């Protein structure tokens, strides 16, 4: 029996074994960091959006207070007090959302780091499985070479 045949079979087994390791079906989350992490710029944009919402509501309230004062139903001092109260509530409303937005930023960063960790774990397992298969195949080739050199294969 020719030594080529056992070496060929061992080499074929190595190639087939290494090819049987499936690549993980994940996308590296670092390529999409800007979509996954809620950053300071996102917080600023949301605060501006909420500020506009509170400001438009405050403008409506000030308009109603001025309308009531123009109709003689509200004295001037009460009108000024109402406007100051509306503006204070507007500022309070905008600043009250900041802690929730900061919590969301922290949560998004934690989720992002978890995704990176999962990706790296699967990638490392895939890489290690490929190396293990390759080394296993080389071990088989070594066994065939030992048997051949001892005269057991031909």
Explain the overall architecture.
The protein is mainly α. The chain has one domain (4-149). Helix content is 81%, strand content 0%. It has helices spanning 4-19, 33-36, 40-70, 76-96, 98-149. Helix 3 (40-70) runs antiparallel to helix 4 (76-96) and helix 3 runs antiparallel to helix 5 (98-149). It starts with a helix and ends in a 5-residue tail after the last helix.
Salient structural properties:
mainly alpha, 81% helix, single chain, rod-shaped, 5 helices
Based on helices, strands and strand pairing, what is the structural class?
Answer: mainly alpha
Number of helices: 5
Stretches where pLDDT falls below 50 for ≥5 residues? none
- Strand tally: 0
Question: Mind describing the biggest β-sheet?
Answer: none
Please state roughly what percent of the residues sit in beta strands, choosing from under 5%, 5-15%, 15-25%, 25-35%, 35-45% or over 45%.
under 5%
Provide the domain count.
Answer: 1
**What string gives the helices and strands in order?**
HHHHH
Overall 3D form = rod-shaped
Subunit organisation of the chains: single chain
User: How far is the first residue's CA from the last residue's CA?
Assistant: 5 Å
Mind telling me the C-alpha Rg? 35 Å
Please bin the fraction of helical residues: over 70%
Averaged pLDDT:
77
In short:
The protein has 154 residues and is mostly helical.
